Amino acid sequence: MEKFFSKPNAEKKRIFDEVRQNYSVWRDELYTMNKPFFMIHSDFKYQYLKDISGGALKLFIFLGMHSKYNTGESWYSVEEVSKFFDKDQRTIAKWFSELETIGLIFRAQDGFNRKANTFLKPYGFLFDLVSQEISITKNVSEDIEMSMAMDWKPVFGVIFNSNFKEYTFVLLYQDDTVYRCSCFLNFEYEELRLLRRNLKQKNILVDNYDIDVSIMNSGNVKLTIYNHLLKYFEEEKA
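and the corresponding structure tokens:
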């Protein structure tokens, strides 16, 4: 078979255009038919994709495709799943155990000799825009107190400094498999030092991340913060 890169440029362009068009038509057809689907959103990449085993990932997709939309609930037994994948029950039980251990599912029986209920669990980042009625330092302290009362563990904070002299602080809490993010918008530069000192006393690490867009004028504040938070994590791991 002729190597693709040795083809004339016009032919390579024709093939690329054909592949793109085929995918576009396929997507439009799925949308028109309203086929059922299971969504794995981008947070999965950062929390699970690197370390999850192939078997557990296949089981997670299987459960997602068969779970109730509003509750994330299904009732498949180890035996039924083993028949679908043509694997022994010990292997399937191991996959279930891995998903429970990393926090992607909750599985339990509500009665003797009953099928186990398997629930998909939420994961990823959730955002709350916190109003600043007094000062950011006081508001952050109050936010920490309320969050810890709900057993949300403060993990760390990121200060987004931008060329627009617009400062946003995001404090991340861990709530099981969910990271809840309190976002304090557009505070004054003079408050930075006091905020840092206050968080240091609480043993909460804080980092700076410079961005080149206005969060307040972005049109979708939560999405803008989320996208830059992901960029921050990617650069930290690089």
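(Above: one complete record from the training split.) The longest helix spans residues 9-33.
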